[in-house]
Design a protein that fits this description.
heterodimer; A: alpha+beta; two-stranded antiparallel ribbon; 3 helices; 38% helix; B: mainly beta; six-stranded mixed beta barrel; three-stranded antiparallel sheet; 48% strand; globular
């Protein structure tokens, strides 16, 4: 079994329809440019359709989110060419599978 | 090193937890002299097959949490976007709350699917911060941290 973490390329990011859809789709649209500009591994804060800022660490981006948009839905995301995939509980997969088939 | 011990009374690994807003949010509310939501004290299941911890929609609603991070996982037919929420999570012994607590002050969690018997799932992201010993014959789970 491979011990490497599974990833997808940024061009494979799916369109989001969830509560952060506006922010996520803004990120999908902008990530290529951000990578070319040399921001890989930095953290971006997006509110609505607007990039608020870019920071070196998650803590700094979270602090900015708390400062400017306290308890509001925002997107804080690391800018990556290869996006790591979460490995949720088997329970999540069973639920997602049943939901997808219904 | 602090230690918590839990009995294994079913075929699941269950611990007591307290969930609230992430610590910086609690500090900000406190500084502004605003009331913070009441903590949710419940049971959590330990799942070493998951690298992401999770909480139920019910707890999300009780704490009025908003998403902060969007991530990807592999679903049926391709990758799926999931939202992550920031919480503080404390593992403690509800029968002996004076014992040390294993605290994660700013943890990212995903929403759990409905229908689980517990409100919190603890994955490897939390477990990598402690030492876990399962003594099967003694039906005992110990966390050192």
């Amino acid at each position: 079994m491979s011990s490497e973490r599974r990833t997808i390329h940024w061009t494979q990011l799916p369109e989001d329809t969830g509560p952060l859809a506006t922010e996520s789709n803004c990120y999908r649209r902008e990530v290529g440019r951000l990578l070319v500009e040399g921001h890989e591994n930095r953290w971006v804060l997006i509110k609505g359709d607007k990039i608020i800022g870019i920071w070196d660490t998650r803590q700094e981006a979270f602090a900015a989110a708390d400062e400017r948009f306290f308890r509001q839905a925002v997107l804080v995301k690391q800018i990556l060419e290869w996006e790591p995939l979460l490995r949720p509980s088997l329970r999540w997969y069973l639920w997602h599978s049943s939901r997808s088939q219904s | 090193m602090a230690q918590l011990t839990f009995p294994v009374v079913t075929d699941e690994l269950l611990v007591d937890v307290r969930v609230n807003l992430h610590a910086p949010a609690l500090a900000k509310l406190q500084a502004a002299q605003n009331a913070a939501p009441a903590s949710v004290v419940t049971r959590a299941i330990i799942d070493t097959g998951s690298n992401a911890s999770g909480i139920s929609a019910s707890v999300l609603q009780q704490l009025a949490l908003v998403p902060y991070v969007q991530s990807q996982t592999q679903g049926i037919g391709g990758s799926v976007s999931v939202q992550l929420y920031r919480i503080s999570l404390s593992i403690f012994d509800a029968a002996q709350p004076h014992l040390p607590w294993f605290v994660q002050p700013d943890l990212l969690v995903m929403e759990l699917p409905p229908g689980l018997s517990v409100d919190v799932l603890i994955g490897m992201d939390v477990l990598l911060g402690c030492r876990m010993l399962l003594d099967g014959p003694a039906r005992q789970l110990t966390l050192d941290f």
